[in-house]
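Homework-ish question, so no full write-ups if that breaks the rules, but can someone show me the predicted structure for this set?
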Amino acid sequence: MITELGHFALILALAACIIQSTVPFVGARRRDTSMMAVGPVAAVTSFVLVLISFFALVHAYVVSDFSVINVVENSHSLKPLIYKISGVWGNHEGSMLLWITILVLFSALVATFGGNLPESLKANVLSVQAWVTTAFLLFVLLTSNPFLRASPAPLEGNDLNPVLQDIGLAIHPPLLYLGYVGFSISFSFAIAALIEGRIDAAWARWVRPWTLAAWSFLTAGIAMGSYWAYYELGWGGWWFWDPVENASFMPWLAGTALLHSALVMEKREALKIWTVLLAILTFSFSLLGTFLVRSGVLTSVHAFATDPARGVFILGILILFIGGALALFGFRAAALKSGGMFAPVSREGALVLNNLFLTTAAATVLVGTLYPLLLEATTGTKISVGAPFFNLTFGPLMVPLLIAAPFGPLLAWKRADLAGVAQRLYLAVGAALLVGLAVLYMHTGAPVLAALGIALGVFVIGGALTDLGGRIGIGRVSAAIAWSRFKGLPRAAFGTALAHAGLGITVIGVVAASVFSTELVTAMKPGDTAEAGGYAVRFEGMRDVNGPNYTSQAGEFSIRRGGVEVARLSSAKRFYPARRMPTTEAGIVTFGLSQLYISLGDPESNGGLVVRIWWKSWITCIWYGAILMMLGGVLSLSDRRLRVGAPNRARTPRRASTVEAGA
Amino acid sequence: MTRKQKRLSIIAAGAVFIVAAVALVTSALREQIVFFNSPTDVLAQTVTPGARVRLGGLVEEGSVIRGQDTTVTFKVTDTTNAVHVSYKGILPDLFREGQGVVTEGVFDQTTGEFIADSVLAKHDENYMPKEVADALKAQGVWKEGDATPGVTPQGSN
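A: Not a homework solution, just the prediction itself:
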């Protein structure tokens, strides 16, 4: 009954979305206030309806209702409750429903907190958002309905893929979706602006908080996914340049660029056309990612060709929205007059550079992701594009970006003094050189590139500190004044510094983990000792541990340093009978910033056990840095200037570049 | 500089930048991609010496030998031809005789043995790496709907 209610609510939501797509849109063109007022009501209604539908599915999972096909295929009555719930989005149909839930959540947020938006802009934004929602609701209802019943109902379900039964994967998809579905708002704003033919600094001020929020979630989601892959797959890798990962990374790169260009637009009314284009591109990458992951094209080009309903549907949505948006952009962009002039050496110039590198980086990731698919579809030749390709293309693009990052916030708007800024960065440069030399000295024979990479990370962190120090006048004013200035700094300033420092920390982690980590594959018998990262790893023996829906064999290890036991670690192989599937549960202990990582292999004929022991130098920096970036985003978001719904301070009216809306 | 000159110089700089990026990508694509081969492909065409390739097929029944010092040797077969593979390290959870596998590595010039440095057998027991499934289909060994090497596309996950 509840399942049918959920299904019905989803159909009603479609009706509400169709109203939201049309009535406010027509209202905005006719300047009919009452028609425009339908937008927020419809948005909140469809949000409530989709939410009912979503919770109906959650309910079916929680009570293990095996008369619902989707539950049968992805759940099991013995599964712990948390994984019953996360199983809702651990499969195609459910995750599309989550996608839509987040889409309508953002509509409802705009409807509720968009009080200070001009009426027609708000109406158009809500309509555009509803166009996207309508398309995806149709997709779910027509091709991926999670509410279909099974008859006769089986007694037990097939269980969720065991590698997905993990707390990391319970949280990862919602965070990721909050991120890349969140960019739909920037997209809707961009389309609405193009429709109205009117865009100004105020537009950027409205768009930026939404972009920041989505970006922060996406950052957290990607970091979480990377950490999940690291500990759950048991391969010790934290990023595989897998198409599924790239699918979320491309919107992140474009979204980062958007964040920065919207800044220029807000402050200087420059880069308008570019910002609108970026907003379109960012969400296009999100749609492309959805297509790649959800159509089955990655699993097999062949499977895609034989069962094309879903793939072709999403491809249709993709072409409609990306093509439509770009066509609209082509027609209307020329009408958007650009504002402020700036010299190449200026904060604007630095941000343009940032955008150039980030979008090119996104493009290289795009090529590396799509090229194998296109090649196979057209010629049948199968190739794999892996880490070496991305290291060679993405890597070099990041270097100039990292060098430029500390300069950006120190440069003045309009026209800046590069030499002066370089002078202010002497401490950061000094620290970077010192650390680089220290790395070379301590790890004799360390690759020079690694020392440079770490120095670059330190330089970025140093740049962030220099920016903060300069703003509060450290060394120029008394400590008390500096402190009061520190307290008075806008939160956005801290946000920028924190996010840039986080980037530096991530870079250091990436370089250190890939260069200084050690790996040892060896056969061990109980009592044997191996050496990793200065610690002695002693294999104590095997132990059977059984969970609710799996059996497991765990290897127990004691970690000693200088003869003293400092930690114990257990690394296991699990077997899930429902899917007859084994998984590796790597054992990880953290020492400072580094980690000791052990995964088990197969028993050898002579009674030993193959064990893989990694020492992962400074690897946690990768995720700590990402967390700092996310916090930087959240901190900027809490800045009063950006707070959604905060009343605008009185401003001298600015000449907005306007073209006739009725064109 | 006038506004127009400034804009032109920015466009020129951007164009130079994009050309450089395109050059980077095309050269990387030429050198860093890895082609997929079935054992029959390997025998039919001479693989460029020293080139990295992906070799995929089924792990031949009874061919897995766990030797000294964590080295494992096995044969990868497409049921017509088979290639000797040696790998040092931990095999994936789902590595089993008779199951699909994709290995990546280099052919030893002297022995003709394939020295793999990575072995992939992903996802679940029904899943067949897509290259392997397609190659086996091309050999006519496996038809759609077969029970054992059935492709249950993980497309949903």
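Now go work out the reasoning yourself. Hint: Chain B touches chain A at residues 3, 6, 9-10, 14, 17-18, 21, 24-25, 27-29, 31-36, 54, 66, 69-70, 88-91, 93-94, 104, 123-125, 130-131, 133-134, 137, 144, 151, 153-157 (CB under 8 Å).
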